[in-house]
Every structure is written in structure tokens, then in C-alpha cells.
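sanity check this fold:
=====
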Amino acid sequence: MMKIWYNNCMIPKYIQPFLWSYDFKKIDKEKDKKRIITNVLNLGSQKATNWLFDNYTKKEIKEVLSDPLPGEWDKKSFNFWSIVLGIKINKKTKCFTTF
């Protein structure tokens, strides 16, 4: 059986690569849920997105997409998850990253 390591707030270690620029020991599952949801939906593996949907309600996830963090989303990821979750996108949304 594979061991899954967690931080202090019960976030599995396999989520850490998607929060690479944050101190994983200080990430709080509730206080930082907008950041966690954004990063996992943008960058996450299937395992990470499965964990996300097991730990946050669809309503919480939809709220993050409905009020996205500015400049944080990959356009394709945002559009994909908006379709999957049935969220109408405001054309003036300024949430996309520019490279």
C-alpha cells in the first residue's frame, strides 16, 4: 500500500507540485482554497483533480471559476473547466496569464 504524506491541513503531498511557489507547510485547505482550486485545475494531474473534487464541493469550485484570480488562468484550462462545470464566461474576464 502506498503511503500518502500530508501537510498540517491534510493536503496530500502529491498536490505540492501544483503549489510549487508556496510554502506547502503553511497552505491551509480552507483559507487558501481559491489558490488550491485555481492551481490544481490549471496544472493538476488527474489524481490531483480527483482529490480536488473529493475535498471541495462543486459549488465551491464553480465560485472560483465565476470569480477567477486575475492573471492566474491558462485560457484553455479556464475554458475547459467552464464548459465541464457549466459556467457562462464573461468575455471581459481578465484572468488569463500572458507569456
In short: The mean pLDDT is 85. The first helix runs from residue 33 to 43. The helical segments are 33-43, 46-55, 58-66, 75-85.
